[in-house]
């Protein structure tokens, strides 16, 4: 839907009106036949039709293009009243800047920022409403640190609130201690498994060294026996030589 033509000051060119809603173009698109439409209007039309609502020429969403620049400039220069005119705003500004103004307009109806409050209030009156809103919050005057809603003032008990807070802190501490305990046990188990694995590897290496040493001792004994045999043979040969 476009901008209500009744909001505009002075004459509005026919070419700047949507061919479907007949209001002033909002976020305009143009068909190849040069008829212009609000984006929302033409998209809604093309859901059920495949032609231009003015001259019935066949059109498709892919054929729609932005408005010509000179038409866009003419559109942006149009002067109109703020939509909050009925609440007292007398601002008249260009269509190009109307959205920025209305986002900041002191007469805009905005929701109360307090949780649970459903009141819609003019922006200029918001501070006054917040000061008396039954859903406003404040810190307990007795110093317990609890945030109060006005509706809870008569039911608030500092001792009970502090006791509840203490219980929550105690529960949180217990949870953290348990988590630290489980983490430490997990680390110890991991280190224990690593040590057992390392011990097994060292034990295997020791057994292998013992086996190698045993083989070396056996070789040494064999060499010593061969050496004695060789010495005996030399002595025997020497003896025979003397006899000869």
UniProtKB/TrEMBL annotation:
Statement: the UniProt record of this protein carries the keyword Coiled coil: yes
Pfam annotation, one family: zf-C3HC4_2
Residue runs in coiled coils: 192-243
Domain of life: Eukaryota
Residue span(s) of domain TRAF-type: 101-144
Annotated GO MF terms: ligase activity; zinc ion binding
UniProt keyword annotation of Metal-binding present: yes
Start-end of TRAF-type zinc fingers: 101-144
Annotated ranges, domain RING-type: 18-56
Gene Ontology biological-process entries: regulation of canonical NF-kappaB signal transduction
Key words, A-Z: Coiled coil, Ligase, Metal-binding, Zinc, Zinc-finger
Protein name per Swiss-Prot or TrEMBL: RNF41 ligase
